[in-house]
Amino acid sequence: MKPKMKYTVFSVVIVVLWSLLAATPMSGQPLSAAYDSSRQVKLQGPVTRIDWVNPHAFLFIDVKDAASTFTNWAVEFGNALELEKDGWKRSTVHIGDVVSVEGIPARTESRRALAKSVVLTRTGKKLFTPAPRRAAALPAPAPRWPDGQIRLGPPAGKKGYWGVPSAKVLIEKAAASIPMSDDGLLVNLADADRVAPFQPWAKAVFEHRQRTILKDDPIMRCLPPGGPRQFQSANGFQFVEQKELGRILVLLGGGDRNWRMIYTDGRPLGQPDEAVPSYYGSSVGHWEKDTLVVDSVGYNEKFWMSSSGLPHTEALHLTERFTRTDLNTLKYEVTVDDPRTYTKSWAGGWTVQWVPDQEIQEYFCEDNAETTFVR
Fold first, then answer.
1. At CB < 8 A and 24+ separation, what contacts does 5-14 make?
2. Which domains does the chain have, with CATH numbers?
3. What confidence tens digit (pLDDT) does each residue in 42-90 have?
4. Exposure pattern of 51-62 as b/e (b: 16+ CB <10 Å)?
5. Is the preceding omega at residue 55 within 30 degrees of 0, hence cis?
6. From CA 170, how far away is CA 26, in angstroms rounded?
7. Quick one: which of 28, 173, 262, 301 is 20 to 30 A from 369 by CA?
């Protein structure tokens, strides 16, 4: 009975986290690792400091307890880039303004909370709420170059980028739907076998990352989202096709101006041990009708392939297929081949929606929560 009880408790905790995270703007970092959704906290006090940065924006407020002693709390309420997209500014709240906060406290004993709501006390106005989402672009065929080749970027004379993916985690395509939070936490840890065909050591690593609520995710240290995860990160991505140079640049909106190079000049892929291991690997691509097929090797082991904690080794070989089915939809498929980590090759994928008439905004991960204060 003990193992069953263990999974049941784990499942209850994750369901609570799931409901919270579904309503919380994601910055690309696992909030569930930092905050304890089984507890609630209500705070009120004047604002003493504002950190308007990425990936975590904070208000610091002085809170008076029953003994009339003041303590300073750090309240996370989003990230600057997403807040500005929703029409909020740093000047929305000022030093000295009194705010009321309902939120979720940190897992540690630190005086830190994740805000579910922030209200300006003198007016009753709720702050930092999300704006209504823009309507999707009108249906249209996929744009093409003069030679008839599909364009992965914007139509000629226009702008835009690829934004919201249809899935937040990578799982084996053959698996049925697996209950999992946007953070990548399984509702039932017993479903680990359905995520991917793990080697025994890899399954143990994956389950450890799940049990520790993804607290060691390299993204939390502002490291790049390598492998397939780059196409599930916040703030989107963009293709810059340089046909005359035989290459495609992939610019990432959520990775400190990270970029990736895909060569389309016919050069061979090479061997993993010939490449300098990196987060994005060494990539060569070619077109099969309207699909760009990219093979990549030469990955380091410093990233997780998915927010759920998928492991890999330097033997990783990814085959990615990018198909723009119309103006607004990019179909992404990836085959994972890493015999040291998985018992067989396996595939997954999702679609990504086009964001028209906008440019990717500058985003830098500033890990302020760890470096500029100690709670």
1. 7/188, 7/189, 7/190, 10/188, 10/189, 10/211, 11/187, 11/188, 11/189, 13/37, 13/38, 14/181, 14/185, 14/186, 14/187
2. 34-131 (2.40.50.140), 160-356 (no CATH)
3. 999 999 999 998 888 999 999 998 888 999 999 999 888 889 888 999 9
4. bbbbbbbbbbbe
5. yes
6. 17
7. 301
